[in-house]
Design a protein that fits this description.
Distance between the termini: 19 Å
Structural class: alpha/beta
Helix content: 25-40%
Shape: globular
Radius of gyration: 21 Å
Bound molecules: 3-[(4S)-2,5-dioxoimidazolidin-4-yl]propanoic acid, fe (iii) ion
Length: 402
């Protein structure tokens, strides 16, 4: 079989579910044609006559699937360094939010930014992720909260995929905070989001999913259900910021609404974890926010394991609670702070992150038929990717076979 490109003399972590562990293969080969994987396995089992226009000999480097950051708020204007200083001086995240700072301060700056300005502000953050091997990134809106700015944020996010070799999955996060012009009219804002915005972003193809911040400082379980009903009617997937700062029954709401994922989950209870397992809802763990807000209650990882809830790891990159643009560091934090195993971390930024975005049939593992998105690492053991702090051993990154 004649292919476009072939990597050999490599070690592979395929992450294929049928394989034991993470599917490690010594002396492996990957071949790509038309951007897709046509073979990934031991060189001894490669189909006879497998050849390629370009043959790349590696030096025993490890090849993993391209990394997937499945929860970010990458597109915004300004920063919140001043709030960071206030928190260092003793103010809490919730106090700052209730005083009109927090998310709403980023909303003010984002409303004043053009689409070009948003793209320009985001590119350095995106490039930081790509430099560590990210090949798919999810990006949420939620810093506009009015019609035009939310659309602008989503368009800016989509346009990043035309500027860089990366797949961008977008999520409409209308229920992130109550915008000031609706401060005395929650019902009016819920109507705008559920009746106008959700159908609009679906019709314009600007988002694949709908998310909400279900929290006592944000939106209630009932309000969350309403936006989920609208999302389902519009044919959009559901995701949820759930149980981050308090137990709001978010995990159960996400599960009940067939959400792809419930994210954060520090305060999730056992019933919520059980419901997630039954629904197949992925637990997206965000240790960057836990660390940066100096939270003390870690998500119930042992309970997720016991019920068989799949776990992903993401940066939650955002200006307020997780100004983090390193998925490698997110893995280290997940291991150190949440006690995830190395294998759970590596699966959490590949296969399980793909599952959390509903694209596991396309990416997330090294298997024939999937996009050939690869990361090639200068490490002796893949555990080094989780173990090191602030060191990037990426040898090269392949997106769609290139
Ligand atoms: N939870 C978070 O951690 C971020 N959004 C959310 O719903 C924080 C966003 C911010 O503070 O700007
Ligand atoms: Fe978030």
């Amino acid at each position: 079989m004649q292919c476009d490109r072939l990597w050999y003399n490599a070690r592979l972590m395929t992450l294929a579910e049928a394989s034991p562990g993470l599917g490690a293969i010594e002396d492996g080969v990957i071949a790509a044609k038309g951007g897709r994987i046509v073979y990934a396995g031991p060189s001894a089992d490669a189909p006879a006559g497998l050849d390629a226009q370009e043959r790349i000999r590696l030096d025993g480097q490890w090849i993993l699937p391209g990394l997937i950051d499945c929860h970010t708020h990458l597109v915004y204007a300004g920063d919140r360094a001043r709030e960071f200083e206030l928190r260092l001086a003793g103010a809490t995240y919730e106090e700052i939010a209730r005083a009109g700072g927090g998310i709403l301060s980023t909303v003010r700056e984002t409303r004043n930014a053009s689409e070009a300005a948003l793209v320009a502000a985001t590119l350095p953050r995106l490039d930081a992720l790509l430099a560590e091997g990210v090949t798919t990134v999810e990006i949420k809106s939620g810093y506009g909260l009015d019609r035009d700015t939310e659309l602008r944020q989503l368009r800016a996010a989509k346009s990043l995929a035309r500027l860089r070799p990366v797949d961008v999955r977008t999520t409409y996060l209308g229920l992130h905070a109550l915008p000031p012009e609706f401060a005395t009219d929650r019902e009016g804002y819920l109507d705008l989001v559920c009746r106008e915005m959700v159908p609009l972003v679906a019709a314009e193809g600007l988002a694949e999913s709908v998310d909400a911040f279900c929290e006592r400082i944000a939106f209630s379980p009932e309000e969350t259900e309403r936006v989920f009903v609208a999302a389902r009617a519009a044919g959009l997937a559901r995701k949820l910021h759930a149980d981050q700062l308090s137990d709001s029954a978010g995990a159960a709401i996400a599960a009940r609404n067939g959400a792809l994922s419930a994210d954060h989950l520090e305060y999730t209870n056992e019933a919520g974890a059980s419901a997630m397992a039954t629904a197949g809802t992925v637990a997206v763990l965000l240790p960057g926010a836990f660390y940066f807000l100096r939270e003390t209650k870690a998500p119930p990882v042992a309970t997720f394991r016991r019920f068989g809830v799949p776990m992903a790891v993401a940066t939650d990159s955002n200006p307020g609670s997780s100004p983090l643009t390193s998925l490698l560091l997110a893995m280290n934090l997940a291991a150190t702070l949440f006690r995830l195993t190395v294998d759970e971390c590596l699966a959490g930024v590949t296969r399980e992150a793909a599952r959390a975005l509903g694209i596991l049939d396309q990416v997330g593992t090294l298997e024939p038929g999937k996009w050939c998105d690869l990361t090639i690492w200068n490490v002796e053991r893949p555990a080094e990717l989780v173990y090191r702090i602030g060191f990037n051993p990426l040898h090269s990154r392949v997106w769609r076979g290139q």
